[in-house]
Protein 1
Amino acid sequence: MSNTSNFDFCVQFGIEAVREVFHLALKNEDLFIHNLPPMPRNFGGHPATVSVRLLDDQTDDADLSFLDLKRILFDLPIEITVETPDAPDPSLARVTLSSTIRAPGSLASWPVDGEDQLGINFAGIIAADVEVPALTGLPALDAARFLAALHTRFVALPSRSFSQGGNTLNIYDGTRGPVLTPPNKPGNPEISAVLETHGADQFLKVTLPLHAKITMPIAWSSYGVATFWRKVVFGTGTVTVTMETEPAPPLRTVILFDDNGFIGQQVATQLQPLLVTQLANFAPVTEPWFDEAAAKELLKAEVAGYLSPRRFPFYTPKSGDPAHPLTTPVGFLLVPTSTLAILMNRRTGTAADDVAPDDFRGADLLALALSRAVLDASIAEAIESEFENLDNGGHFISTPEGDATLLSLSVTPSDAGEHGETEGHLWISGEAEVHIDCWPDPDVSFDGPIYLRLIVVETETTCSATFKAEMGEFDAGQSCCDVFVDLLIPIVGWIMLGVVEHMIDEVGGELAVKIAGGQEQVLAPIPSFVQGVAEMQACLETCITSSQGLVLPGKLRIRREGTSFEDLADDGNLPRG
Amino acid sequence: MTENKQKSGKGGPRLATPLVVPKVAESIRIDSHRDLVAKAGLIAARVAQDPAFSVMFLSNPVLALEAYGIKLSPEMQHHVLATLRHPPKLRTRREELEASLEAELGVKPHPENPKWLAEMVFVKREIAPRDTTGLDPVYSAALNADTLARLQATRPKGVVRYPGVKRLPIQFRLGVAPSDPALRRLDLEAELPDMRPAKETPYELSLEQAWFYKDDPLVHDAVELGQIMRRGFPFRTPAEFRAIQAGTRVDAFRKFVRNVRVKGFRPT
């Protein structure tokens, strides 16, 4: 296990940063369209439309957690609205299902403007991947919804007055439809409906006002009501009242006239088949309908359809140097510590050899790690640059205090506990020939710890860090010790500055402005922008040395990329009314 | 520079492993330089037999040789210490400054003594005291221009990679801390700052404080002499030597140097 695995560098973020970028991505309408237009669907032969709406606000907020090494589990508040266009009144028959669904997204890389960026991709998600823990908006089976449909269908009937052998049957629904002869009886009674359960089935019991006029063989007329039952049939996504099917006894259609004498009963019996035939014209009475299982399946399917083309970036490194291209950033999710680790620049092996690094972030929001291999190479390069004759018999060093030939020098990053030191350190060892008068030059072997410190001073607008190398505690009041310290310590500080700047360069950070005679640079330790989503700024706060290399923990600020209302207000550029 | 506060002596807390004094059968006496050269091989062999103790040569070569059973005459002790204290160039400059200051002041110069320095500046040279509150002397950089240029070249060049409008106001800056002030880098060529007269005359002046009076040529030379004296090899007193050997006191050499390999003269 290691901080950087088989890569040169690793950047680690706490889940809080991932959440923040995710919320900003959710606000981006190009990445996550919030209202999809109605999409045609077919439920069991019935056409319908489905609209999808994504929420992320104070009352319905999205969230995420790390699922495994490569997948994030997203909590997304989703609303879907189903309408059946052939319902008598779709506006009264709309079903809106709401749920905070859970769906996985995968860490992935894809190129943008020629540079690979790391992000979350929902490609390949299917309904079975989506979890619907709780659901609101399930439709209740309600006679009022059917009654509303019956009222609508009544108005749309081709006729409300039916003749048979010179006899006439009128049906009424309050004052709806054209005025018939005779008109509805005083009080204008309406169609009414209730739900009843008979056996294992549910029926809609409907009461229909009517009037019959008989001319043959005798003249007779009367107002009355017809009572009929129609079976309620549940389909896939719909519920239908089968108006065209007369159920078996005892639920046959019954006509009862106000004049319920012998003639009235005979007339009712005679007109019942005519009425049953005409009742079929009320069809279809169909409403959207989902039981919980069906609603969940619908949601899963629609959410998978919504998410599968979506992805959002999290890390957008740019080399800025065509001669020094960045390799694909590879992400791992360290679930136990809720850490996103991004490995950069594969040093050994192929993608098949990639493994998750150790968590080195601790409680910090951000941390950068440099591999031991890179640190060793950087130190060797710096030593070679500073003491160029070391490999050719020794590097001559001349100071006013005396001369010496440095014969060997090594700098080894070491753990706390090694060499009796209580903190991580650079272990310096070497050998020098000291030139003295009147005696053959003695050889001096030396070794000891150097501690690296990052001294940070923060103001409201700057976070200023300086590298300082320190030797272990000792009484170094003498100037000859100064020479020893001056030979090593400032150089070590510079080596570390260069090493860290190289790391920042490699992980896509920005070395932008040189100040203070070139010894200090304004820079962004990680990429300043997540393309199209967020602006980021990091401050490194400490430097930890170990046998695995360097770790630089820090803090992170994130804000929305682009210009917000508040930005315009700050700039005094709000539109004037 | 870190200066720890431990006391010398065997009774203090142990900071390093004690060094065992070499066991020697017989003492070797050195009375002359010729004697020293003649017995160099013997000395080197004794040191090689007990290499761990050799680090004590850097605390005091005379006392270290004694521990190895090599006793120098007083003349040879002086010769060894004087030779090792400064390289020839500094030794010559020190002698020049000591002679010229004694001639001008009429007394042997002691710039390492703060009371002597104060008396020289304020009494002998009659310079009015200056208010140096909040001021620091100028020190030269630990790294010279060539070294800095080489190190600068190892750093990557800045590239503006993200030209979008940045609205986060915080800037992160990274650099190297300046070198700690060191007496050996006290810059005697730098210009003095503007100073107001001080209300009181100090009773003592350190070399760093005397730097603020270096516009007087004798004070300049006294500060330079003090610098050279302090830049000499820090031979330890017998008590300090014993504390370092016992590990109750640790200096840079004891902390970093593992051994010193003394060589004999090659036969000619």
Protein 2
Amino acid sequence: MPAVGRASCPPTAGGNAHRTAAGTAALHKPQEPLLQPIAISYNRAHHRFAIFVAVVTFFLIIAGALVTSNDAGLSVPDWPTSFGSLYKIPHLVGGVKFEHTHRMIAQFVGFLSIILAVWTWRADPRRWMKYLGLTALSLVIAQGILGGITVLFYLPPAVSSAHAALAQTFFCVVVLIALFTGQNWVEEIPLVEIDRERPSLFALVLFSIVVLYVQLILGAMFRHHGLSWWPHVLNAATVAIVLTWTCVRALSRYSGLDGVRRPAITLLSLLIAQLCLGFVAFLTRVAWGHDAVQPELPMVVSTVAHVAVGALLLATTVVLAAQVWLRIPVVEERIPSRERKQVAA
Amino acid sequence: MNKKLWAAMFVLGLLALLAGCSKKENTNEEQTTSPSSEMKPSATATPIDPATAASVSGTVTFGGAAPKAAKIDMSQDAACKGNNVAETIVANDGKLANVFVYVKDGLGDRTFDVPKDSVTIDQKGCRYHPHVLGVMTGQNIEIRNDDETTHNIHPTPKDNREWNESQPPKAAAIEKNFAREEIMLPVKCNQHPWMKMYVNVVKTPFYAVTGEDGKYEIKGLPPGDYTLAFVQEKLGEQTQKITLAAKDSKTVDQGFKP
């Protein structure tokens, strides 16, 4: 049975080392600057803004998926201008409707990311959070440049796939910012359970992220005509096994931890939905739609939903990883021996 | 060199790269030589004796029941009205249209002048006219837009240079050519994803595209042994070996099966 206790010591400098919890400061010596407590209070406006950016980013991913599924990536042939203008909105018909809408939402997300980065830099005392805000901004800039390059070079599969993968990476970073600015993360003294099993749950979650990321790249390469469908379908089995293993471990051992149980249940539900959507997308695109004279609605709906749920799946796994990192420390590696007694039940 | 200077150089380099990519591409891939639409011999072309020239003609057929043509949904653009049936396989009474027929082999090192006349691709009713086009390497192609909506013309070649340009209603014709031989080079419009056509680029003037009656005719061939190729966008390529004597007028039919 895992050891359970209230965390009087934060498991990580990146986790709750910044808390003002009374016991935190006492447990750390001055020579551990990374674990120095930093006065921080929950900033509701900042947190809600981060959630807003994450939601808009999710819609941006859907808009991007609509561009690909409708084969509209080159309907606006120039970049950074659209039909020669930086600000005029073209007649939104045909493929232009999808491509230009995607560009407008992307510009909006870029603008929001600047605000988020500046706000985080100014309002959040945690140094690593400041850098996380800057990371988000850097990613969205890189993403915009990749989007431009893929238009100017007529959608090379590698660049288009990188654009797709980076989109979800950016989404995960913004979701993490929303998580780390949340009231629970900032103010709660988490209930901690020690993980003595091998592989540890944290290792399993990290492995889940890796296989999901590989799956994301394989799927993007298939969608952008750089690879056949079968590597993506084969890897889906690996994803299903690894994620199921991770969720079962999390739910069977740590169901008492809300922060772990909730994302684990969400992850399992999304996995089931994603496998079903993947099957439907395969039917509508590969089996039935390979000779279609134009993108058909069932194919567009199923493939876009597959991309959207895929993004949620990856983001949920990243959230689970953060929660496991916070709440389920791996006993030998991360808890100094003198502290094990204090957290043991 | 300090970090700021490096960063400034990187940003400038990136902007220069993007600016270079954004520049409007040259309309022509390569300069054409002085062409002759009547195939008159020139200093570079290999002369053909008109007194011995032969011809080949025939009908291309489609065996079995013709597949039902897929319907196109043009509802995403109100300006798109017209025939909304796909042209993937057009077979009327067993006669197969839109088959590109050309002399694939047998002309050796002969060279031919590029015709002076342009060939035309017309965008009308959100369709390309014609659906299959034959053109010589370097020959001018004039692309018109007769629709009340913007199209973009986007060839996706394997051996030629790719380009993608938009063309608003009533805009001036776009003129292009292709420098290298390529059969069934797809051209599409990313604004109207059902719009597809194929350009066939060859080095000789000996080609034809079957009409709705499945018929084709190639004239002016010098006597010799040839490989005649029949290419359909979906059904692929079939070939026949033929021998043409002087002044021959041979009939060569070809059948495709589903």
